[in-house]
Specification:
It is a single chain. The protein has 137 residues and is mainly beta. The protein has a single domain, classed as Factor Xa Inhibitor (Irregular). The chain is built from 1 helix and 7 strands; from the N terminus they run βββαββββ. The chain has one helix at residues 73-85, and strands spanning 10-14, 22-36, 60-70, 90-95, 99-113, 121-128, 133-136. A 6-stranded antiparallel β-barrel has the order 1-2-3-6-5-4. A hairpin with a 7-residue loop joins strand 5 and strand 6. The longest helix has 13 residues, at 73-85. The chain is elongated. The termini are close together.
Length: 137
């Protein structure tokens, strides 16, 4: 994978659950992380006393955070509804020339900021709330 523009990472939302994703934000600064817990199955009989882990048994999770400006008033309103209604819709995170991560995410933080001589910005944080899929581009 060659170097990519960070501004090309997109956050898309399927607010209705109908499978139609709408871009809500082009994030200026982003962080996407995948995590997996381990399940230790080491015993006194483990070869050479080395730790042994159980494959595929740990809890997996993903989180995305970022900041930027909203695409339009409708996308701002959509994310506010998701937060205040406490819903867990499907999102797509489009990573250019890499792939698309999609699935249910809970919006855990939505912050607004701005300066008197600049645009209003936001910061957002989402955590996975179910099984995710990855589709290579």
């Amino acid at each position: 994978m060659t170097a990519q523009k960070g501004k090309d990472l997109l956050l898309k939302l399927d607010e209705t659950g109908g499978g139609t994703f709408v871009t809500v934000a082009g994030l200026r600064a982003t962080r996407l992380s995948f995590n997996s817990d381990t399940v230790d199955v080491t015993t006194a009989e483990s070869a050479g006393n080395w730790r042994e882990l159980l494959a595929g048994a740990g809890l997996r999770a993903a989180a995305i955070s970022g900041s930027g400006i909203f695409k339009d008033a409708a996308s701002d309103a959509a994310l506010r509804r998701v937060f205040f209604d406490g819903t867990i819709p499907d999102f797509e995170i489009v990573i250019p020339d890499f792939g698309v991560v999609s699935g249910p995410f809970q919006l855990t933080s939505l912050e607004y900021s701005g300066q008197h001589d600049g645009e209003a910005g936001f910061e957002i944080a989402l955590v996975s709330a179910g099984a995710l899929t990855f589709t290579a581009i």
